[in-house]
Design goal:
The complex is a heterodimer. Chain A is built from 10 helices and 14 strands. Chain A is an alpha+beta fold. A 5-stranded mixed sheet of chain A has the order 4-1-5-6-7. A 5-stranded mixed sheet of chain A has the order 11-12-8-14-13. Chain B has one domain. By secondary structure, chain B is α+β, with helices and mostly antiparallel strands. Helix content of chain B is 31%, strand content 28%. In chain B, strand 1 and strand 2 form a beta hairpin. Classes of the chains: A alpha+beta, B alpha+beta. Chains A and B meet through helix 4 and helix 8 of A and helix 4 of B.
């Protein structure tokens, strides 16, 4: 009898843990415009092209209001069961591993894939949703006015999934940090309800990613080469049909050298209940192409969490 | 006999009409840093309200079903998306809005602000204004626990 109870409890615990999916993780950052206004920008060399990108580390270290706003949003999100990832801490981790992050090139040809500092942060922190905040304090004749924007961006697709914006009434008695906190609490509810809609969509239709299949120039085949009587490109299409949620994806820019897939809806978790991102999903396709009858080696590269690029021909 | 009855009913209706406020207006004054709503509830009446529970109930009803706005506030949508009639048989909603006075838990303070009178051809109407503070976060939390509001955690 005792054994039966123990076995039944174990099965029940197993079922409960299987039924519960892992929560999406959220991380908060100041918006690009906010960083630009406060001169928290740095130059990033994107394969020869100079690009201005936010210097988050500097903003966390030097701006006093930012910490207060993040802390307020953080506490409200904790109340809703969603603690935020500490972006400042993640940035420190990235800094200590900069050398590692540069190893995204083909072993054979040395071809590389450039990642922006934000892509690196997304990759390292593995946050599903990036919350971006922006505010501006304007002085008017009747007092200070705080304009506030809170946005949530899907880290996988960079799509805006929730947004709340508002202006406070002119206020001459409260200090700016108090006005900012009021702006946060006034805007959080509509924001959270939009976030809820996105989560509902994600649990029903899967996570959205982008996938690109290309070929190395020195490969003697292309995507129109036939294997077992059908083009490689068509067989990749069939694999995606089988492995995406409800077979949902869109094929774009198709040629013999390259196929891009957008709005690829991947399951939130693999068969072992591990969170799945673009890389994990593309590994499945990489293995499929490596096996017979294809026997194709492929280099897998990623950009952020939501984009995977598979280059056929060699690693 | 019939005439007397009609007279009595008319007198009762008149008296009832005089003591019961006709309408309430809710205006958001501010949202505090701890997410409490500071509301001004205005009502017209010939007599001052002895029981402030009506004011509290109106304020909670406004926050739940009608939403609140005001010149000093970012407009706040109603907490609930369902209508009052949809939730009329809900136990928790009935406990908040019903005779059990559950709304009391969420009203952190209430005070009379001022009165002003308007005289309009034989009739004097007094406008009473009350300031009510509502603990919105606690209300939202309890509604989520009661399963009326969906938690962000749902499905995870």
């Amino acid at each position: 009898m005792k054994k039966i109870i123990i076995i039944a409890s174990a099965v029940l615990i197993g079922l409960v843990s299987q039924a519960q999916a892992k929560k999406p993780t959220l991380m908060i950052l100041p918006s690009d415009n906010w960083c630009e206004q406060r001169y928290f920008m740095t130059e990033f060399d994107n394969q020869g092209t100079k690009q201005k990108v936010p210097n988050y580390k500097q903003s966390f270290q030097e701006d006093g209001e930012l910490a207060q706003v993040i802390s307020k949003i953080g506490s409200l999100m904790i109340d809703r069961g969603f603690p935020l990832k500490d972006a400042e801490q993640e940035l420190k981790n990235i800094e200590s591993r900069t050398a590692e992050d540069n190893m995204t090139s083909s072993v054979a040809t040395g071809s590389g894939l450039s990642e922006s500092p934000l892509d690196k942060l997304k990759n390292k922190a593995k946050a599903d949703i990036i919350l971006q905040i922006w505010w501006k304090v304007t002085k008017t004749d009747s007092g200070k006015v705080v304009s506030f924007i809170l946005e949530a961006l899907d880290a996988y697709t960079s799509k805006r999934v929730a947004s709340s914006t508002g202006n406070s009434a002119p206020n001459s008695k409260d200090i700016v940090p108090v006005m900012l906190q009021q702006a946060v609490v006034s805007n959080i509810d509509p924001f959270v309800s939009q976030l809820q809609t996105h989560f509902d969509d994600m649990t029903t239709n899967g996570r959205e990613i982008r996938l690109s299949v290309r070929k190395w120039n020195n490969w003697d085949k292309n995507l129109e080469t036939e294997v077992n009587g059908d083009e490689i490109r068509n067989q990749i299409y069939d694999w995606l049909q089988k492995n995406t949620v409800k077979g949902r994806f869109s094929e774009m820019n198709t040629s013999e050298n390259r196929v891009d897939y957008e709005q690829v809806r991947i399951p939130l978790f693999d068969e072992r209940n591990r969170a799945m991102d673009a890389r994990q999903f593309a590994i499945g396709l990489q293995k499929y192409l490596k096996a017979a009858p294809f026997n194709i080696e492929a280099k897998l590269m990623t950009r952020g969490l939501g984009e995977a690029i598979l280059v056929l021909g060699e690693k | 006999m019939f005439r007397t009855a009609i007279c009595l009913v008319s007198i009762c209706m008149f008296l009832f009409g005089c003591s019961t406020p006709k309408s309430f207006q809710i205006e958001c004054q501010s949202v505090s840093v701890d997410a409490a709503y500071i509301l001004d509830v205005t009502t017209e009446s010939k007599k001052e309200l002895k029981d402030l529970n009506t004011i509290k109930l109106e304020a909670i009803d406004g926050v739940l079903f009608r939403g609140i706005s005001g010149p000093n506030c970012v407009t706040q949508k109603p907490i609930l998306t369902q209508s009052k009639s949809e939730l009329k048989s809900n136990k928790f909603i009935n406990s908040i809005l019903g005779k059990k006075k559950g709304y009391d838990k969420y009203v952190t303070s209430i005070s009379k602000l001022n009165t002003s009178a308007t005289v309009d051809f034989k009739k004097t109407t007094i406008i009473y204004k009350y300031r009510v503070s509502i603990n919105k976060e606690l209300l939202r939390k309890d509604l989520t626990e009661a399963g009326i509001l969906k938690s962000l955690n749902t499905g995870f």
